[in-house]
């Protein structure tokens, strides 16, 4: 969703932080001001973020399981019955991720051509509400029944609803951002680490903000350097304004979304490029629709049929993309090329993807990892005052009730494999980590699990990249033996991750041994030799336009 177009030792700390935060009410006034739109220029004054804030993501499905299907979803019947005797009102914004519902409804308004009316004898009315504060206000007032959201923002809004003794649920995942969100920068900036010292424009408390916080947490920057980068972020009212600052050469990078992402690159020609986007960080930003609890309780059959129609709308788009682009373009007042471009930057998520996302096939619910991770971040920024847990803010019954409609449905994801090293490779993330091995051996010593588990998190989030693992030794001993040892140690890192994260495709690794050829310190001292006994980690783009 857009205004216009994710260690073990730290888990306990995170849980305690969430529990202890219940007494943390002193930011309530600022929160209410921002949520109602009366303070759009508010700035965060919370604690700086670090990689531990995102630890929950490491336990998420590493890659959406290739060819995994809807098998294993436990079909449930709806408790109670009931349908609305009026149109279901759904708040959306100008974003092509809403296409399935618009196509199935044959437009924004209920009418005789609507498949919702023909197949389910129900009327659906889509209303455009671009401003998130206005959307939430209409939702809370009861003017709309379902509202657009991203899972990261849903964690913030759920806390606001809880503070006001209101309840709602995420009922369906709409899409994954797959290139629709990203960072445009000067071409001279090649990695996240190189953002240090540059001004960056971004819209606060949006998917853009969450994306850059996550990327910084995964980078090789120190905590102090990450804090410095955050201080250089200039917050704008919306994503187009962030892109406009980059176009006007007022900043060196901007976090935004399509179509402004591509337009910003075009505006500055060869001096600009997309530094990183969700085409690489594939499992960070997910769009969802959230329904009021009172409507769910009153009309569960309406909710089920709405979700069913949404999935069927995806199939209609596949069968007639040109017709769908025209229909959606007319509804959202966009040209067909813009609609097509928006859709190319996301992955619409049909039944099997939803079943996996909400953990209905037996795996971990990625919905929960995103929601709970975002909650920790917004808490540190002073944006939430009431604790909420993901599982209490989703209702999967409507997806489960449709299991018999989609037997054998599969999750379709492109396969990603590492290639041979090339001079054209661009590493968007560069880390130097210390992994302790038994001297003269490739046996990983106890105590390195935290660092290695974090690599599983990296592979989870950057689903369309490969990981280059470069082993290095000090200069002690025979150079040939050191080279062989470094190669074996790099391979040991790969083997650890693939063993402990079985959904990670081993083909996404590239292991290299440098021996003692790439020192970063003098080998004459023990301190220098220790620095040279390291493993370099690079997240490398699979393609570079």
List the helices and strands and how they pair.
Elements: H1 8-20, H2 28-35, E1 88-92, H3 99-105, H4 115-120, E2 124-128, H5 132-141, E3 146-150, H6 151-163, E4 168-177, E5 181-186, E6 200-203, H7 207-218, H8 223-231, E7 233-236, H9 239-247, E8 253-257, H10 260-268, E9 272-277, E10 286-292, H11 293-298, H12 300-319, H13 321-332, H14 336-344, E11 346-348, H15 351-357, H16 366-380, H17 397-400, E12 427-433, H18 449-461, E13 465-471, H19 479-500, E14 509-513, H20 526-532, E15 535-541
Parallel strand pairs: 1-2, 1-3, 6-7, 6-8, 13-14
Antiparallel strand pairs: 3-10, 4-10, 4-11, 5-8, 5-9, 12-15, 13-15
Helix pairs in contact: 3-12, 6-16, 9-10, 12-13, 13-14, 18-19
Concise description?
It is built from 20 helices and 15 strands. The chain has helices at 8-20, 28-35, 99-105, 115-120, 132-141, 151-163, 207-218, 223-231, 239-247, 260-268, 293-298, 300-319, 321-332, 336-344, 351-357, 366-380, 397-400, 449-461, 479-500, 526-532; strands at 88-92, 124-128, 146-150, 168-177, 181-186, 200-203, 233-236, 253-257, 272-277, 286-292, 346-348, 427-433, 465-471, 509-513, 535-541.
